[in-house]
Every structure is written in C-alpha cells, then in structure tokens.
Write a structure and sequence with these properties.
- It contains five helices and five strands, in the order H-H-H-H-E-E-E-E-E-H.
- Helix 3 packs antiparallel against helix 4.
- Among the domains are: about 70 residues; about 60 residues, no CATH class.
- The chain is about 65% helix and about 15% strand.
- The chain has a five-stranded antiparallel sheet with strand order 1-2-3-4-5, covered by helices on one side.
- It is rod-shaped and about 155 Å long.
- Keywords: Signal.
Length: about 250
Amino acid sequence: MSNRTQIAACIVGALALTSASMAFAGPLEEVQTEQRKIHVAAAQSQEKINGLFEQSQELLIDYRAVVDQTENLKIYNDYVARLVTDQQRVVDSLQRQIDSIEETKQNIVPLMGRMIDSLEKFINLDVPINKQERLDRVQRLRDVMGNSSVTVSEQFRLVLDAYSIENAYGTRINAYEGNIQVNGEDISVEFFNLGRTALLALTLDQQTAWAWDNDTRSWQKLGDEYLNSVIQATRMAGGLVPEDLIKLPIKAAE
C-alpha cells in the first residue's frame, strides 16, 4: 500500500476508536459513580457494624456486671435470710419469756416474802451483832415490797443483797459503839465481834467486859483475866494496833 493509503487508514482507525470511546464514556462514568456509591455505602455500613460491635461489647460488659451483681445479691439475700431466721428465734424466745413473766412474778413474790420473814427470824435468834441495823434493813425490805414503783427484779436484788450482808457478819472482825442492858441498866460500851464466834462488850472506861451467851440470850460478865485481851481486841479491830494472838472467851463447839 502506498503511504497515502496507510495514513488514510490510520486516520479512519483513529476516528473509529474515538467514536467508540465516546460511545462507551457515558456508561463507564455511571459504573464508576455506582462503584463510588457502593464504596461509600460499604464504608458507612462498616461504620455501623463497628458501632454495633462496640455497643454489643458494652452490652456484654453490662450483662456480665449484672450477672455478677445478681450473684452477689443472691449471696447477700441468703445471708440476710439466715439473719432474719436467727432474729426470729430470738424474738420467739423473748416472747416466751415475756409470756412467762406474770407466772414468774406470781411465784417469786411469795418467795421473797418468805425470805424476808426467815431473815427476820434468823436475826432475832442470831448473835446480836448490829442487831438494830439488821432489823432496820429487814423493815426497809418490807417497805420496798409494798412500793409499786420498784420492779420485782429490783426487789429480789435487794433481798439477795440483805442475805449477802448477813453472810458477811460471819467472817468479819469489827468494833463499834452501842448500848447493852445489864440488870435493867443501860450501859454504853464498845462492841467487838469475831465473826459469829464471839461478841464482846467493853465499857468506855475499859474497866468491865462482858461476853454474849447466845444460849441464855444474855450478857455474861468476864473475869479480870480477860480484860486486857478484850481491850487489845477492840484496838486491833479499830486498826490501832497490829493483829496478834489474843486470849478470848470462846464457847467450845458441842
């Protein structure tokens, strides 16, 4: 082919390609546009998926927290239930005690009356150590028993205290002043008692001494051989001299 012919053919081919390119340019742009839309939509979908995944993780964390809290609450509720059960047992026990209070009072009030009567009889038969003081204590107990403002428990405590005081008289060494009746004469003396073993009386001028005889319920005058011992005994009881061995008139046990 001649050069002119080849050039003409190239021109025709180029025109044909140009026409074809122009023919496909419109649909290609549309495809590219749709692809871009698809990519944008895919990106948006991925963002939504990422957001949903994050939400699901948060929900999972919340769920686990709720499960843990529920388990803790269950354990705590079981603990509280045991406490309530135990408290109910205490309440039931207290209620039974309350219900029995009246019955207890009905039994203990007569008992206290008998205890006071027995205490008074004992004092009148006992060695007269601080006798008037002890009888006054019994009278106060009787007054308390008739006082509605004093509870039964407090009344019972006072009765037991009186018995405790009486018990202490048997173990104490004591000296105190008072009066005795001898042959119808009222004499001021200083008493000395060695528990309930011996009760002695010494005149304030320390010239005469007596010993109490509980069998005859009377004072027996002591001989001069006991006078110094009685004086020494009163001084020891008063803390004036150290304790030491002394000779006292003690009635032997039968």
